[in-house]
Amino acid sequence: MDSNSTSSGDESAFYRQPSPTTLSEHLDNHGSNTPINPLFRVIDSKRSPAAISLRAFFLGLTLGVSLTLAFQAIEAHYDPLWRAWVFLAALAVFHFLEFYITARYNPPAATVSAFLLSQNGYAYNVAHALAFLECVLRSYVAPQYFPDRAYLQPIDTLMPSKGPIRAMWLTLGFAMLALGQGIRSFAMAHAGTNFNHLVQSRKKAGHVLVTDGIYAWLRHPSYFGFFWWGLATQLIMGNVGCLAGYAVVLWRFFKLRIESMYS
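Below the sequence we write its predicted structure tokens.
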């Protein structure tokens, strides 16, 4: 995600170059006189205000609906599925902030791909789908085959003697979520135009290696932020399997990515 070097690009897990499906590429391939489906123009144009606003609208809608369902689930005798809705809400905030921070501090890169909704690769989407699936299975389908989820249940459903310990896990999860998101967003803002979501194979004109601010403390702060953000989502959801999986996969991915920058 942090392209604050000549060989590095996006630091988030599984990001890839966008496929050639934009309006401008369509015109390059087929000519300006070729009829264009209006929906194609709205959805795929790199800088189309309509395309950007649609994505922002649906992310906001996802956030609102997810939080509403989460609160309803909590009120309904603490339905454990509230965790899955919180996860979707966190994803909506993450992807919106990816674009917003880019648009605010690096306007030239503020295209629809800055939302990172379809540029992360299949593994990114599979990982989140598996996390959601584990939460649902553990909660409803086959809870007897999954580790005890009680350590993450809300305080009000717990025995007083165990409540503080279980509350601690939830508090830790939400704290990690806020910290990870905050560090990543602040790193993007601080790097400004020196940050790029796409891997850079050569130094661009005007690129400066940022070494002050948060970059004086963390060489790859957006890696750091996303790593802990990802683990926090699984801690909040109570996903034992995906928590371990996220830790291993993200650690290995970022380790290999950082090593490749300096090789």
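Residues 27 and 211 are 41 Å apart (CA to CA).
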